[in-house]
Amino acid sequence: MEMGVLVTAGGGADSALDESGLWTPSWPVLGKTVLQRWVERVQCLGVGLVSVVDRNPHERHRVHTMVEWAKEGVEQILLIALGSYAEIDLQDLIRFHSEGRRQVTKVFDQQGPLGISLLDRGCILANREEANQDGDLPSSRYDFLGYVVRLSSTAKYRQLVEDALEGRCGIQPTGSQIQKSVWIDETAQVDASAQIQAPCYIGPATKIKAGVAIKGCSSVERNCEIDLGTSLNHTSIQPNTYVAPGLYFRESVVDGTRLEHLARGVTLDLGTAGLSARIGTQARHAHRSPKLALVSQSARPDAKAG
Amino acid sequence: MTKPPPMTVKRLPEPCDKASRRFFLREIKGFVDNSHRPRLIVDLSAVEQISPESIDLLLECVGHAERGDGEVSVAGASPETGVILEITQAASVLNMFPSVLEAANGRELRDFESWQPRYPGDRAV
């Protein structure tokens, strides 16, 4: 039986909540985005048809794709709204759907729908308009009790990163595992004096300079530079980000010049102060005051903690 | 009765105003040189997000105050300034308070009844 999978980017069950901060689905989780991880899992089903479309409600692309696939003879379409990371056994979902009487099966966890539905061809052809609003169609309920994170905010993103590094979910970081719970890509450059404390992740083409300390489930994604003596604790650095020397980050996410401090609930721009930059679009090495550097050297609270 | 250590409350000059910056530092130095264990409270309530130049200035104040066995407190920092002071680790050499009043906590107003401002911007607490 032929099957198609439609992954809708940019929203999900909780996408209406205005608590997202800096969070964007384009952020990688230890080397790959959630979208990439979904696509990989779907490909394990041996499905040939996988399409990623925008979730814009005015966009007719999604329903058009579904109808076209149905017309071409695709028997089932799995619809995944990228609002969560859920380790669903897709084979089991398909089996459950096949055993049911409804033409639509929706996946729920204890909090409600996860934005994942399996639809039959007949239902799509019979309800071409409603297929874009699958909430209105009669459906079976598939209750999922496994690992789920609803990616609605930066805090949820950090939860997923920490769960992955602690082995509480099935996400496998890219790169080589050089010791227990420490993954460093082979193309990363890590100075010998850097303190790397498990669990943590360092992505491809990233430079970790002398005296840097990384600990507490911190992650540094691809093509970043963490300058001399900076400390990261429970912090994620997004791709293509330069971080100035002698700084101390905790419970934060830095994406280019933007920082979200989760413990303080503050989002701000670090670029004007020269504390971080987007690699490739701005001066890579921002100006740092020598006095700040001196304080950083003498006052780092846990530089030797690793 | 032991005389309480002298205290002054200041606001930072504009980051780019070098003349005001020099004047500000001269004031601080004068205050510290003529005091034993001076307490300087810097009122940041009017600062939205502190600049690197202003952090430098704060650190110079810390240096002066330490020479007189004194201390520097900052009061009324915005959440953004609080984060900047934390990540630059300037917070580790400063005492942080939500307001000037709380920074001066423990001091009774009568201690300052005879206090007279010497410079524009000085405030008794």
Explain how this protein is built.
The complex is a heterodimer of chains A (306) and B (125). Chain A is of the alpha/beta class. Chain A has two domains: 148 residues, Spore Coat Polysaccharide Biosynthesis Protein SpsA, Chain A (Alpha-Beta Complex); 127 residues, 3 Solenoid (UDP N-Acetylglucosamine Acyltransferase, domain 1). In chain A, 19% of the residues lie in helices and 33% in strands. Chain A contains six helices and 25 strands. In chain A, strands 11, 12, 14, 15, 17, 18, 20, 22, 23 and 24 form a ten-stranded mixed beta sheet that branches. A six-stranded mixed beta sheet of chain A has the order 4-1-5-8-7-9, with helices on both faces. Chain A has a five-stranded mixed beta sheet with strand order 13-16-19-21-25, with no helix packed on it. In chain A, strand 11 and strand 12 form a beta hairpin. Chain A is elongated. Chain A starts with a strand and ends in a 7-residue tail after the last helix. Chain B starts with 6 loop residues before the first strand and ends in a 22-residue tail after the last helix. In chain B, helix 1 packs parallel to helix 2. The interface between A and B is medium-sized, with 29 and 20 residues.
Largest interface: A-B, 29 and 20 residues
Structural class of the secondary elements of chain B?
A: alpha/beta
* Count of helical stretches of chain A: 6
Domains of chain B, number: 1
Shape of chain B: globular
What characterizes the major β-sheet of chain B? 4 strands, parallel
Average of per-residue pLDDT values of chain A = 84
CATH topology of the largest domain in chain A: Spore Coat Polysaccharide Biosynthesis Protein SpsA, Chain A
Could you tell me the strand content of chain B as a percent range?
5-15%
Q: Strand order, main sheet of chain B: write it out.
A: 1-2-3-4
Can you identify the CATH superfamily of chain B? STAS domain
Principal-axis shape of chain A: elongated
Please name the fourth-level CATH homologous superfamily of the largest domain in chain A: Spore Coat Polysaccharide Biosynthesis Protein SpsA, Chain A
